[in-house]
Design brief:
This protein is an alpha+beta fold. It is built from 5 helices and 5 strands; from the N terminus they run αααββαβββα.
Length: 151
């Protein structure tokens, strides 16, 4: 009881630091700024990898380009590893597989727990493609880069 009263007195005098039993939340950020900068760098790296794959596909013949429907990249926030998934409609014809699935499946082990994905691009047109309803049921919104469009 004395501890709580002392803490209240300290709080009233503006002498709280960190967490306290009364408010039970941190007054200081949990992670240093470097952590957030690293995440921004990882997301930029994923976007650049996706755009490089789109450019590679756009350099192909029109016939070859038409095989690719969407390109997505994902980054593992723990390691910075970037994976690009390009859905080839010839290879995956008739299969319920999206570029997002291809990204997740390439990580070892295949787990989406720490993966953030870019928005999808249609290589033929360069258009941003909305995340389909199927992927919205599989992946939470916070698993996509901010600004990603959803159906």
């Amino acid at each position: 009881m004395e501890e709580i009263e002392a803490e209240r007195a300290g709080a009233a005098a503006g002498k709280t630091g960190g967490t306290g039993k009364i408010d039970d939340f941190a007054k200081e950020p949990f992670l240093p700024d470097e952590y957030y900068q690293k995440i921004d760098d990882y997301l930029a790296k994923a976007t650049a990898a996706r755009d490089a794959e789109v450019a590679r596909i756009q350099a192909l013949s029109k016939t070859q380009q038409s095989k690719y429907t969407t390109v997505v990249a994902g980054v593992d926030l723990r390691t910075g590893e970037v994976i690009v998934g390009s859905k080839n409609s010839i290879i995956y014809k008739g299969q319920a597989i999206c570029a997002e699935d291809l990204v997740i499946s390439k990580f070892i082990p295949p787990s989406n727990a720490n993966i953030i994905m870019t928005s999808a691009i249609r290589p033929r047109t360069g258009q941003v493609i909305a995340v389909c309803t199927r992927c919205q049921t599989k992946f939470p919104v916070n698993q996509f880069i901010q600004g990603t469009v959803f159906d």
